[in-house]
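Data availability (excerpt). The following record was deposited with the supplementary files.
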Amino acid sequence: MAMTRKLIILVKINLSAFMDIPPLGILYVGDALKKAGYQVQVLHISPEQVEESVQQILDKNPLYVGFSVFTGSAMRSYAEMSRKIKRHSNIPIVWGNVHPSSLPVQCLQETYIDYVVIGEGEETAVELAQALEDQRELGEVMGIGYKLNGEIAITKPRPFIQNLDDYALDWSLVDIEQYISSFGNVNRAIRFVTSRGCPHRCGFCYNMLFNKRSWRKHSVGFVVSQINRLKEERGINGIMFMDDEFFVNKKRAISIVEQIDLPYYASCRIEYIDDEFARQLAETKCRYLLIGLESGSDRILKLINKDIKVSDIKAGLRALSNYPQIQVSGSLIFGFPTETRDEFRSTLKLIVELLDNKSNMTFTTGWYMPYPGSELYEFAIQHGFHPPKRTEDWEALDRWIDNFELTWVDWISTAETTEVRNNVVFLAFLYRFNIPLLKNIAKKQIVARDGQLGITMKGFRLLYDMIRTDHGRIFNLLRTFVLKIIWKLRDIQIQRRKLVMKDGAKKG
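Predicted structure:
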Protein backbone atom coordinates (compact mmCIF):
# COMPACT_ATOMS: atom_id res chain seq x y z
CA MET A 1 0.00 0.00 0.00
CA ALA A 2 1.27 3.45 -0.92
CA MET A 3 2.09 5.79 1.92
CA THR A 4 -0.24 8.70 2.59
CA ARG A 5 1.18 11.87 1.09
CA LYS A 6 0.12 15.50 1.06
CA LEU A 7 -3.27 16.88 0.12
CA ILE A 8 -4.03 18.03 -3.43
CA ILE A 9 -7.21 19.97 -4.16
CA LEU A 10 -8.82 19.74 -7.60
CA VAL A 11 -11.32 22.41 -8.69
CA LYS A 12 -14.00 22.55 -11.35
CA ILE A 13 -16.13 25.68 -11.76
CA ASN A 14 -19.41 25.44 -13.65
CA LEU A 15 -22.15 27.95 -14.25
CA SER A 16 -25.13 27.10 -12.04
CA ALA A 17 -27.11 25.62 -14.96
CA PHE A 18 -24.43 22.94 -15.49
CA MET A 19 -23.76 21.89 -11.90
CA ASP A 20 -25.47 18.53 -12.45
CA ILE A 21 -22.72 17.50 -14.89
CA PRO A 22 -20.00 15.63 -12.97
CA PRO A 23 -16.36 16.76 -13.31
CA LEU A 24 -15.38 13.55 -15.10
CA GLY A 25 -11.83 14.60 -15.98
CA ILE A 26 -11.06 15.50 -12.37
CA LEU A 27 -12.44 12.17 -11.14
CA TYR A 28 -9.91 10.39 -13.37
CA VAL A 29 -7.02 12.61 -12.20
CA GLY A 30 -8.13 12.15 -8.59
CA ASP A 31 -8.02 8.39 -9.04
CA ALA A 32 -4.43 8.57 -10.33
CA LEU A 33 -3.32 10.80 -7.45
CA LYS A 34 -4.96 8.56 -4.85
CA LYS A 35 -3.28 5.49 -6.33
CA ALA A 36 0.04 7.31 -5.93
CA GLY A 37 -0.72 7.85 -2.24
CA TYR A 38 -1.92 11.47 -2.26
CA GLN A 39 -4.92 12.76 -0.38
CA VAL A 40 -7.40 14.32 -2.79
CA GLN A 41 -10.28 16.73 -2.33
CA VAL A 42 -12.55 17.77 -5.19
CA LEU A 43 -14.31 21.13 -5.17
CA HIS A 44 -17.03 21.33 -7.80
CA ILE A 45 -18.44 24.81 -7.38
CA SER A 46 -20.39 27.59 -9.05
CA PRO A 47 -18.97 31.14 -9.46
CA GLU A 48 -21.01 32.20 -6.44
CA GLN A 49 -19.02 29.77 -4.26
CA VAL A 50 -15.55 31.06 -5.14
CA GLU A 51 -15.04 33.15 -2.00
CA GLU A 52 -15.87 30.40 0.52
CA SER A 53 -13.85 27.85 -1.48
CA VAL A 54 -10.76 30.07 -1.39
CA GLN A 55 -10.92 30.14 2.39
CA GLN A 56 -11.24 26.32 2.52
CA ILE A 57 -8.11 26.00 0.39
CA LEU A 58 -6.13 28.49 2.47
CA ASP A 59 -7.09 26.67 5.66
CA LYS A 60 -5.92 23.30 4.31
CA ASN A 61 -2.72 24.54 2.61
CA PRO A 62 -2.49 21.76 -0.05
CA LEU A 63 0.59 20.77 -2.06
CA TYR A 64 -1.08 22.42 -5.05
CA VAL A 65 -4.50 23.41 -6.39
CA GLY A 66 -5.40 22.01 -9.81
CA PHE A 67 -8.03 23.74 -11.95
CA SER A 68 -9.81 22.01 -14.85
CA VAL A 69 -10.37 24.79 -17.40
CA PHE A 70 -12.33 24.63 -20.65
CA THR A 71 -12.20 27.54 -23.10
CA GLY A 72 -14.93 30.09 -22.43
CA SER A 73 -16.93 28.79 -19.53
CA ALA A 74 -16.44 30.52 -16.14
CA MET A 75 -12.90 31.62 -16.98
CA ARG A 76 -13.18 34.89 -15.06
CA SER A 77 -14.13 32.85 -11.99
CA TYR A 78 -11.09 30.60 -12.46
CA ALA A 79 -8.88 33.69 -12.72
CA GLU A 80 -10.51 35.36 -9.70
CA MET A 81 -10.12 32.26 -7.55
CA SER A 82 -6.50 31.72 -8.59
CA ARG A 83 -5.64 35.38 -7.85
CA LYS A 84 -7.17 35.26 -4.38
CA ILE A 85 -5.27 32.11 -3.46
CA LYS A 86 -1.99 33.61 -4.67
CA ARG A 87 -2.72 36.90 -2.87
CA HIS A 88 -2.86 35.17 0.50
CA SER A 89 -0.48 32.20 0.08
CA ASN A 90 2.33 30.57 -1.85
CA ILE A 91 0.21 27.57 -2.78
CA PRO A 92 1.11 26.53 -6.37
CA ILE A 93 -1.67 27.07 -8.91
CA VAL A 94 -1.94 24.49 -11.71
CA TRP A 95 -4.26 24.87 -14.72
CA GLY A 96 -5.09 21.87 -16.89
CA ASN A 97 -7.59 20.62 -19.50
CA VAL A 98 -8.36 22.00 -22.95
CA HIS A 99 -7.67 25.72 -22.62
CA PRO A 100 -4.22 25.67 -21.01
CA SER A 101 -3.29 22.79 -23.34
CA SER A 102 -4.20 25.02 -26.29
CA LEU A 103 -2.61 28.26 -25.05
CA PRO A 104 0.03 27.30 -22.47
CA VAL A 105 2.22 30.37 -23.04
CA GLN A 106 -0.63 32.86 -22.71
CA CYS A 107 -1.78 31.15 -19.51
CA LEU A 108 1.69 31.23 -17.99
CA GLN A 109 2.00 34.95 -18.73
CA GLU A 110 -0.59 35.44 -15.99
CA THR A 111 0.91 36.02 -12.55
CA TYR A 112 -1.72 33.85 -10.89
CA ILE A 113 -0.86 30.65 -12.81
CA ASP A 114 2.32 28.76 -11.84
CA TYR A 115 2.05 25.58 -13.93
CA VAL A 116 -0.02 24.25 -16.81
CA VAL A 117 -0.70 20.62 -17.64
CA ILE A 118 -0.68 20.03 -21.40
CA GLY A 119 -2.79 17.08 -22.57
CA GLU A 120 -4.01 14.20 -20.41
CA GLY A 121 -3.64 14.87 -16.73
CA GLU A 122 -3.45 11.57 -14.86
CA GLU A 123 0.26 10.75 -15.08
CA THR A 124 1.36 14.37 -15.31
CA ALA A 125 -0.53 15.37 -12.15
CA VAL A 126 1.24 12.61 -10.21
CA GLU A 127 4.72 13.39 -11.51
CA LEU A 128 4.26 17.12 -10.93
CA ALA A 129 3.15 16.43 -7.36
CA GLN A 130 6.20 14.22 -6.77
CA ALA A 131 8.56 16.83 -8.21
CA LEU A 132 7.10 19.61 -6.08
CA GLU A 133 7.08 17.46 -2.96
CA ASP A 134 10.65 16.27 -3.43
CA GLN A 135 11.84 19.63 -4.87
CA ARG A 136 13.12 17.93 -8.02
CA GLU A 137 13.88 19.38 -11.43
CA LEU A 138 10.62 20.18 -13.21
CA GLY A 139 12.15 19.77 -16.65
CA GLU A 140 11.95 16.01 -16.17
CA VAL A 141 8.14 16.10 -15.96
CA MET A 142 6.66 15.61 -19.42
CA GLY A 143 3.60 17.55 -20.52
CA ILE A 144 3.89 20.70 -18.40
CA GLY A 145 4.66 24.39 -18.76
CA TYR A 146 6.21 26.48 -15.98
CA LYS A 147 8.21 29.60 -15.24
CA LEU A 148 11.99 29.33 -14.97
CA ASN A 149 14.12 32.38 -14.16
CA GLY A 150 11.54 34.72 -15.63
CA GLU A 151 11.12 32.67 -18.80
CA ILE A 152 8.39 30.22 -19.83
CA ALA A 153 9.53 26.62 -20.23
CA ILE A 154 7.56 23.87 -21.98
CA THR A 155 8.66 20.27 -21.45
CA LYS A 156 8.46 17.34 -23.86
CA PRO A 157 4.92 16.20 -24.80
CA ARG A 158 3.59 13.28 -22.81
CA PRO A 159 2.54 10.24 -24.85
CA PHE A 160 -1.13 9.28 -24.67
CA ILE A 161 -2.20 6.76 -22.07
CA GLN A 162 -2.60 3.51 -23.96
CA ASN A 163 -4.29 1.36 -21.32
CA LEU A 164 -7.20 3.44 -20.07
CA ASP A 165 -8.20 0.62 -17.71
CA ASP A 166 -5.33 1.78 -15.46
CA TYR A 167 -7.59 4.61 -14.30
CA ALA A 168 -11.26 4.89 -13.38
CA LEU A 169 -13.83 7.48 -12.39
CA ASP A 170 -13.45 7.78 -8.61
CA TRP A 171 -16.99 8.57 -7.50
CA SER A 172 -15.94 8.56 -3.84
CA LEU A 173 -14.50 12.06 -4.38
CA VAL A 174 -17.96 13.61 -4.88
CA ASP A 175 -21.54 13.17 -3.75
CA ILE A 176 -22.79 11.04 -6.63
CA GLU A 177 -26.41 11.86 -5.82
CA GLN A 178 -25.74 15.41 -6.99
CA TYR A 179 -25.19 14.05 -10.49
CA ILE A 180 -28.17 11.75 -10.87
CA SER A 181 -29.98 12.80 -14.05
CA SER A 182 -33.01 11.77 -16.08
CA PHE A 183 -33.97 11.28 -19.71
CA GLY A 184 -37.11 9.75 -21.16
CA ASN A 185 -38.54 7.44 -18.48
CA VAL A 186 -35.17 7.04 -16.78
CA ASN A 187 -34.96 8.74 -13.37
CA ARG A 188 -31.53 7.62 -12.06
CA ALA A 189 -29.08 8.07 -14.90
CA ILE A 190 -25.40 8.84 -14.52
CA ARG A 191 -22.87 10.19 -17.01
CA PHE A 192 -20.03 7.83 -17.92
CA VAL A 193 -17.02 7.72 -20.25
CA THR A 194 -15.80 4.62 -22.13
CA SER A 195 -13.24 6.13 -24.53
CA ARG A 196 -11.20 9.23 -25.33
CA GLY A 197 -10.71 11.20 -28.49
CA CYS A 198 -12.21 10.98 -31.96
CA PRO A 199 -10.70 9.82 -35.27
CA HIS A 200 -12.60 12.40 -37.31
CA ARG A 201 -11.26 15.80 -38.41
CA CYS A 202 -13.95 18.43 -37.79
CA GLY A 203 -12.20 21.77 -38.22
CA PHE A 204 -14.08 23.54 -35.42
CA CYS A 205 -13.25 20.98 -32.72
CA TYR A 206 -10.56 21.23 -30.03
CA ASN A 207 -10.06 17.46 -30.32
CA MET A 208 -7.71 17.92 -33.25
CA LEU A 209 -5.20 19.55 -30.92
CA PHE A 210 -6.02 17.88 -27.62
CA ASN A 211 -6.34 14.27 -28.83
CA LYS A 212 -4.73 14.55 -32.28
CA ARG A 213 -7.40 12.28 -33.85
CA SER A 214 -6.34 9.50 -31.48
CA TRP A 215 -9.16 7.27 -30.24
CA ARG A 216 -8.47 5.06 -27.25
CA LYS A 217 -10.87 2.93 -25.29
CA HIS A 218 -11.55 1.16 -22.03
CA SER A 219 -12.01 -2.58 -22.46
CA VAL A 220 -15.59 -3.84 -22.71
CA GLY A 221 -15.16 -5.88 -19.54
CA PHE A 222 -13.90 -2.86 -17.59
CA VAL A 223 -16.83 -0.69 -18.70
CA VAL A 224 -19.44 -3.35 -17.97
CA SER A 225 -18.02 -4.09 -14.50
CA GLN A 226 -17.91 -0.39 -13.58
CA ILE A 227 -21.50 0.20 -14.70
CA ASN A 228 -22.79 -2.97 -13.03
CA ARG A 229 -21.23 -1.74 -9.80
CA LEU A 230 -23.12 1.56 -10.14
CA LYS A 231 -26.33 -0.40 -10.79
CA GLU A 232 -25.87 -2.52 -7.67
CA GLU A 233 -24.56 0.11 -5.27
CA ARG A 234 -26.39 3.24 -6.46
CA GLY A 235 -29.51 1.97 -8.18
CA ILE A 236 -28.51 3.49 -11.51
CA ASN A 237 -31.12 2.66 -14.17
CA GLY A 238 -29.72 4.55 -17.18
CA ILE A 239 -26.37 5.62 -18.63
CA MET A 240 -25.43 8.82 -20.44
CA PHE A 241 -22.30 8.03 -22.43
CA MET A 242 -20.19 11.20 -22.66
CA ASP A 243 -17.58 9.88 -25.10
CA ASP A 244 -16.57 12.28 -27.84
CA GLU A 245 -17.82 9.57 -30.19
CA PHE A 246 -19.28 6.44 -28.58
CA PHE A 247 -19.82 4.44 -31.79
CA VAL A 248 -16.36 4.65 -33.40
CA ASN A 249 -16.31 0.87 -33.06
CA LYS A 250 -19.94 -0.16 -33.49
CA LYS A 251 -19.36 -3.78 -32.48
CA ARG A 252 -17.71 -2.74 -29.22
CA ALA A 253 -20.41 -0.18 -28.42
CA ILE A 254 -23.25 -2.61 -29.09
CA SER A 255 -21.51 -5.23 -26.95
CA ILE A 256 -21.38 -2.79 -24.03
CA VAL A 257 -25.02 -1.73 -24.19
CA GLU A 258 -26.21 -5.31 -24.67
CA GLN A 259 -24.36 -6.44 -21.54
CA ILE A 260 -25.39 -3.56 -19.27
CA ASP A 261 -29.00 -3.86 -20.47
CA LEU A 262 -29.97 -0.31 -19.52
CA PRO A 263 -31.60 2.56 -21.40
CA TYR A 264 -28.85 4.83 -22.64
CA TYR A 265 -27.95 8.19 -24.11
CA ALA A 266 -25.02 8.59 -26.53
CA SER A 267 -23.57 10.67 -29.36
CA CYS A 268 -23.29 9.28 -32.87
CA ARG A 269 -22.05 10.38 -36.30
CA ILE A 270 -24.92 10.64 -38.76
CA GLU A 271 -23.13 8.65 -41.48
CA TYR A 272 -22.93 5.65 -39.13
CA ILE A 273 -26.72 5.32 -39.19
CA ASP A 274 -28.51 3.13 -41.70
CA ASP A 275 -31.65 1.03 -41.38
CA GLU A 276 -29.83 -1.91 -39.75
CA PHE A 277 -27.93 0.21 -37.23
CA ALA A 278 -31.06 2.19 -36.34
CA ARG A 279 -32.75 -1.13 -35.57
CA GLN A 280 -29.80 -2.16 -33.35
CA LEU A 281 -29.99 1.12 -31.47
CA ALA A 282 -33.68 0.63 -30.76
CA GLU A 283 -33.26 -2.99 -29.71
CA THR A 284 -30.42 -2.16 -27.30
CA LYS A 285 -32.54 0.46 -25.48
CA CYS A 286 -31.10 3.62 -26.99
CA ARG A 287 -33.45 6.34 -25.81
CA TYR A 288 -31.55 9.53 -26.63
CA LEU A 289 -29.12 10.19 -29.45
CA LEU A 290 -27.04 13.35 -29.89
CA ILE A 291 -25.91 13.86 -33.48
CA GLY A 292 -23.59 16.57 -34.76
CA LEU A 293 -25.32 17.89 -37.90
CA GLU A 294 -23.64 21.33 -37.86
CA SER A 295 -25.06 22.86 -41.07
CA GLY A 296 -27.63 22.64 -43.85
CA SER A 297 -25.09 23.81 -46.42
CA ASP A 298 -22.86 21.37 -48.30
CA ARG A 299 -20.25 24.11 -48.76
CA ILE A 300 -20.05 24.75 -45.04
CA LEU A 301 -19.90 21.01 -44.27
CA LYS A 302 -16.95 20.75 -46.64
CA LEU A 303 -15.29 23.86 -45.19
CA ILE A 304 -15.36 22.42 -41.68
CA ASN A 305 -14.15 18.95 -42.75
CA LYS A 306 -17.30 17.27 -41.51
CA ASP A 307 -16.95 14.62 -44.25
CA ILE A 308 -20.72 14.38 -44.78
CA LYS A 309 -23.30 15.97 -47.06
CA VAL A 310 -26.79 17.23 -46.33
CA SER A 311 -28.11 14.12 -48.11
CA ASP A 312 -26.32 11.97 -45.50
CA ILE A 313 -28.08 13.89 -42.73
CA LYS A 314 -31.48 13.32 -44.30
CA ALA A 315 -30.82 9.62 -44.93
CA GLY A 316 -29.70 8.97 -41.35
CA LEU A 317 -32.69 10.78 -39.86
CA ARG A 318 -35.05 8.87 -42.20
CA ALA A 319 -33.70 5.61 -40.79
CA LEU A 320 -34.23 6.84 -37.22
CA SER A 321 -37.75 8.12 -37.94
CA ASN A 322 -39.00 4.51 -37.78
CA TYR A 323 -38.14 4.40 -34.07
CA PRO A 324 -40.06 7.06 -32.13
CA GLN A 325 -38.69 5.66 -28.84
CA ILE A 326 -35.31 7.17 -29.76
CA GLN A 327 -35.26 10.88 -28.98
CA VAL A 328 -32.85 12.58 -31.38
CA SER A 329 -31.13 15.88 -30.68
CA GLY A 330 -29.35 17.49 -33.60
CA SER A 331 -26.41 19.75 -32.77
CA LEU A 332 -26.10 22.75 -35.09
CA ILE A 333 -23.51 25.50 -35.34
CA PHE A 334 -24.32 28.89 -36.85
CA GLY A 335 -21.96 31.61 -37.99
CA PHE A 336 -18.91 29.84 -39.38
CA PRO A 337 -16.39 32.20 -41.03
CA THR A 338 -17.51 33.00 -44.62
CA GLU A 339 -21.00 31.56 -43.94
CA THR A 340 -23.58 33.61 -45.81
CA ARG A 341 -27.09 34.58 -44.82
CA ASP A 342 -28.45 32.17 -47.46
CA GLU A 343 -26.37 29.30 -46.02
CA PHE A 344 -27.62 30.14 -42.56
CA ARG A 345 -31.17 30.07 -43.94
CA SER A 346 -30.42 26.64 -45.48
CA THR A 347 -29.73 25.35 -41.97
CA LEU A 348 -33.04 26.76 -40.74
CA LYS A 349 -34.80 25.04 -43.67
CA LEU A 350 -33.08 21.78 -42.79
CA ILE A 351 -34.35 22.06 -39.20
CA VAL A 352 -37.92 22.38 -40.48
CA GLU A 353 -37.52 19.48 -42.91
CA LEU A 354 -36.10 17.23 -40.21
CA LEU A 355 -38.92 18.13 -37.81
CA ASP A 356 -41.46 17.33 -40.53
CA ASN A 357 -39.80 13.90 -40.80
CA LYS A 358 -39.29 13.23 -37.06
CA SER A 359 -41.54 15.43 -34.95
CA ASN A 360 -40.05 14.46 -31.56
CA MET A 361 -36.62 15.73 -32.55
CA THR A 362 -34.93 18.52 -30.61
CA PHE A 363 -31.96 20.74 -31.40
CA THR A 364 -29.01 22.22 -29.56
CA THR A 365 -27.89 25.32 -31.38
CA GLY A 366 -24.85 27.42 -30.68
CA TRP A 367 -22.67 29.91 -32.50
CA TYR A 368 -19.27 29.05 -33.89
CA MET A 369 -16.57 29.34 -31.26
CA PRO A 370 -12.96 29.70 -32.52
CA TYR A 371 -11.24 27.19 -30.27
CA PRO A 372 -7.48 27.81 -30.13
CA GLY A 373 -5.59 25.06 -31.90
CA SER A 374 -8.54 23.94 -34.03
CA GLU A 375 -8.10 23.87 -37.81
CA LEU A 376 -10.50 26.79 -38.33
CA TYR A 377 -8.86 29.01 -35.69
CA GLU A 378 -6.43 30.85 -38.00
CA PHE A 379 -9.13 30.99 -40.68
CA ALA A 380 -11.42 32.77 -38.22
CA ILE A 381 -8.67 35.27 -37.40
CA GLN A 382 -8.27 36.00 -41.11
CA HIS A 383 -11.99 36.82 -41.27
CA GLY A 384 -12.24 39.19 -38.34
CA PHE A 385 -11.84 37.22 -35.11
CA HIS A 386 -9.67 38.99 -32.53
CA PRO A 387 -8.33 36.53 -29.91
CA PRO A 388 -8.43 37.87 -26.34
CA LYS A 389 -5.10 39.15 -25.02
CA ARG A 390 -5.83 38.08 -21.43
CA THR A 391 -6.70 34.55 -20.36
CA GLU A 392 -9.80 35.51 -18.39
CA ASP A 393 -11.28 37.45 -21.33
CA TRP A 394 -11.93 34.19 -23.16
CA GLU A 395 -15.08 33.89 -21.05
CA ALA A 396 -16.76 36.38 -23.40
CA LEU A 397 -16.47 33.77 -26.15
CA ASP A 398 -18.54 31.10 -24.45
CA ARG A 399 -20.82 30.00 -27.31
CA TRP A 400 -23.63 29.16 -24.90
CA ILE A 401 -23.99 32.59 -23.33
CA ASP A 402 -26.66 35.06 -24.38
CA ASN A 403 -25.77 37.80 -26.84
CA PHE A 404 -22.73 36.01 -28.18
CA GLU A 405 -20.86 38.41 -30.49
CA LEU A 406 -19.74 37.17 -33.89
CA THR A 407 -17.07 39.52 -35.23
CA TRP A 408 -16.36 37.32 -38.24
CA VAL A 409 -19.81 37.54 -39.88
CA ASP A 410 -21.72 40.74 -40.62
CA TRP A 411 -25.26 39.55 -41.35
CA ILE A 412 -26.61 39.02 -37.82
CA SER A 413 -26.59 41.17 -34.72
CA THR A 414 -25.46 40.17 -31.24
CA ALA A 415 -29.00 40.30 -29.86
CA GLU A 416 -30.37 38.17 -32.70
CA THR A 417 -28.06 35.27 -31.88
CA THR A 418 -29.93 34.59 -28.63
CA GLU A 419 -33.31 34.97 -30.32
CA VAL A 420 -32.50 32.44 -33.03
CA ARG A 421 -31.36 29.81 -30.54
CA ASN A 422 -34.48 30.23 -28.40
CA ASN A 423 -36.78 30.22 -31.42
CA VAL A 424 -35.39 26.91 -32.69
CA VAL A 425 -36.06 25.33 -29.28
CA PHE A 426 -39.57 26.79 -29.35
CA LEU A 427 -40.26 25.39 -32.82
CA ALA A 428 -39.22 21.89 -31.72
CA PHE A 429 -41.62 22.25 -28.77
CA LEU A 430 -44.52 23.09 -31.11
CA TYR A 431 -43.76 20.01 -33.18
CA ARG A 432 -43.51 17.78 -30.14
CA PHE A 433 -46.99 18.77 -28.97
CA ASN A 434 -48.25 18.88 -32.56
CA ILE A 435 -50.03 22.21 -32.61
CA PRO A 436 -50.58 22.60 -36.39
CA LEU A 437 -51.57 26.27 -36.60
CA LEU A 438 -48.78 27.55 -34.36
CA LYS A 439 -46.07 25.29 -35.78
CA ASN A 440 -46.94 26.16 -39.39
CA ILE A 441 -46.80 29.88 -38.67
CA ALA A 442 -43.60 29.54 -36.65
CA LYS A 443 -41.72 27.43 -39.18
CA LYS A 444 -42.58 29.79 -42.05
CA GLN A 445 -41.50 32.82 -40.03
CA ILE A 446 -38.26 31.24 -38.79
CA VAL A 447 -37.14 30.44 -42.34
CA ALA A 448 -38.40 33.65 -43.99
CA ARG A 449 -37.21 35.97 -41.20
CA ASP A 450 -33.74 34.40 -40.63
CA GLY A 451 -34.66 32.73 -37.39
CA GLN A 452 -36.85 35.52 -36.05
CA LEU A 453 -40.54 35.48 -35.17
CA GLY A 454 -43.35 37.98 -35.71
CA ILE A 455 -44.90 39.83 -32.76
CA THR A 456 -47.76 37.35 -32.28
CA MET A 457 -45.50 34.30 -32.28
CA LYS A 458 -43.07 36.10 -29.98
CA GLY A 459 -45.93 36.34 -27.51
CA PHE A 460 -46.49 32.59 -27.65
CA ARG A 461 -42.75 32.02 -27.27
CA LEU A 462 -42.62 34.31 -24.26
CA LEU A 463 -45.37 32.22 -22.69
CA TYR A 464 -43.39 29.08 -23.50
CA ASP A 465 -40.24 30.57 -21.93
CA MET A 466 -42.17 31.28 -18.75
CA ILE A 467 -43.37 27.69 -18.63
CA ARG A 468 -39.95 26.24 -19.44
CA THR A 469 -38.08 28.22 -16.80
CA ASP A 470 -40.46 26.86 -14.20
CA HIS A 471 -39.96 29.70 -11.71
CA GLY A 472 -42.50 30.24 -8.95
CA ARG A 473 -45.96 29.06 -8.12
CA ILE A 474 -47.71 31.23 -10.75
CA PHE A 475 -45.60 29.77 -13.55
CA ASN A 476 -46.28 26.26 -12.28
CA LEU A 477 -50.01 26.90 -12.33
CA LEU A 478 -49.75 28.49 -15.75
CA ARG A 479 -47.75 25.55 -16.99
CA THR A 480 -50.41 23.07 -15.85
CA PHE A 481 -53.17 25.17 -17.41
CA VAL A 482 -51.45 25.61 -20.78
CA LEU A 483 -50.45 21.96 -21.05
CA LYS A 484 -54.05 20.91 -20.37
CA ILE A 485 -55.19 23.16 -23.22
CA ILE A 486 -52.50 21.74 -25.51
CA TRP A 487 -53.49 18.17 -24.80
CA LYS A 488 -57.20 19.03 -25.17
CA LEU A 489 -56.51 20.57 -28.59
CA ARG A 490 -54.53 17.50 -29.52
CA ASP A 491 -57.42 15.21 -28.45
CA ILE A 492 -59.84 17.26 -30.58
CA GLN A 493 -57.46 16.99 -33.51
CA ILE A 494 -57.19 13.20 -33.14
CA GLN A 495 -60.98 12.84 -32.95
CA ARG A 496 -61.38 14.90 -36.12
CA ARG A 497 -58.89 12.69 -37.93
CA LYS A 498 -60.78 9.60 -36.83
CA LEU A 499 -64.05 11.04 -38.13
CA VAL A 500 -62.45 11.93 -41.46
CA MET A 501 -61.04 8.41 -41.78
CA LYS A 502 -64.41 6.91 -40.82
CA ASP A 503 -66.24 9.01 -43.42
CA GLY A 504 -63.65 8.04 -45.98
CA ALA A 505 -64.12 4.36 -45.21
CA LYS A 506 -67.91 4.68 -45.58
CA LYS A 507 -67.57 6.41 -48.93
CA GLY A 508 -65.13 3.76 -50.06
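Summary of structural features: Residues 2 and 37 are 5 Å apart (CA to CA).
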